[in-house]
């Protein structure tokens, strides 16, 4: 079982090494071969991680059988509140941050005001985290 994980980690290391080689070499003929190698190694890596998870999931399901359904729903609610809040915060920071950058490029005097708006957008993730901590505290 751990051999699959080790092979996947080795392939990901080789992929990163190939990427550095392409970046440093900058030779057009070898770049095509390395890009093909990277695509193949990423495909093998995804397949190996899928196989690893396929064999790991029954162990996870067996370990979770001791938890009753109401606390399981609480854990699910905590995970969803954090996950959805961080997705929303990422979207908000992307929209507000790009707009703030455009506004600051036109008028550098409004940098402080735009940072406040970006901070408010980041606060969405903190609210989701607080809600999940409150949910976990009730379990």
UniProtKB/TrEMBL annotation:
<keyword id="KW-0406">Ion transport</keyword>
<comment type="similarity">
    <text>Belongs to the ATPase C chain family.</text>
</comment>
<dbReference type="GO" id="GO:0045259">
    <property type="term" value="C:proton-transporting ATP synthase complex"/>
</dbReference>
<keyword id="KW-0813">Transport</keyword>
<dbReference type="GO" id="GO:0033177">
    <property type="term" value="C:proton-transporting two-sector ATPase complex, proton-transporting domain"/>
</dbReference>
<feature type="transmembrane region" description="Helical">
    <location>
        <begin position="36"/>
        <end position="57"/>
    </location>
</feature>
<dbReference type="GO" id="GO:0015986">
    <property type="term" value="P:proton motive force-driven ATP synthesis"/>
</dbReference>
<dbReference type="InterPro" id="IPR000454">
    <property type="entry name" value="ATP_synth_F0_csu"/>
</dbReference>
<dbReference type="Pfam" id="PF00137">
    <property type="entry name" value="ATP-synt_C"/>
</dbReference>
<dbReference type="InterPro" id="IPR002379">
    <property type="entry name" value="ATPase_proteolipid_c-like_dom"/>
</dbReference>
<feature type="domain" description="V-ATPase proteolipid subunit C-like">
    <location>
        <begin position="76"/>
        <end position="135"/>
    </location>
</feature>
<dbReference type="GO" id="GO:0015078">
    <property type="term" value="F:proton transmembrane transporter activity"/>
</dbReference>
<protein>
    <recommendedName>
        <fullName>ATP synthase F(0) sector subunit c</fullName>
    </recommendedName>
</protein>
<keyword id="KW-0812">Transmembrane</keyword>
<feature type="transmembrane region" description="Helical">
    <location>
        <begin position="115"/>
        <end position="136"/>
    </location>
</feature>
<keyword id="KW-1133">Transmembrane helix</keyword>
<feature type="transmembrane region" description="Helical">
    <location>
        <begin position="6"/>
        <end position="24"/>
    </location>
</feature>
<keyword id="KW-0472">Membrane</keyword>
<feature type="transmembrane region" description="Helical">
    <location>
        <begin position="77"/>
        <end position="103"/>
    </location>
</feature>
<dbReference type="InterPro" id="IPR035921">
    <property type="entry name" value="F/V-ATP_Csub_sf"/>
</dbReference>
<comment type="similarity">
    <text>Belongs to the V-ATPase proteolipid subunit family.</text>
</comment>
């Amino acid at each position: 079982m751990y051999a699959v994980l080790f092979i996947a980690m080795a392939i990901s290391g080789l992929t990163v090494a190939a990427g550095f080689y392409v970046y440093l070499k900058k030779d057009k003929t070898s770049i095509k071969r390395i890009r093909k190698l990277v695509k193949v190694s990423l495909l093998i890596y995804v397949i190996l991680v899928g196989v690893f998870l396929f064999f790991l999931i029954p162990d996870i399901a067996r370990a979770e059988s001791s938890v009753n359904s109401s606390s399981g729903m609480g854990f699910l609610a905590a995970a969803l509140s954090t996950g959805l809040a961080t997705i929303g915060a990422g979207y908000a920071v992307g929209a507000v941050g790009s707009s703030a950058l455009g506004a600051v490029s036109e008028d550098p005097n409004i940098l402080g005001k735009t940072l406040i708006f970006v901070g408010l957008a980041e606060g969405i993730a903190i609210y989701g985290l607080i809600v999940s901590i409150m949910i976990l505290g009730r379990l």
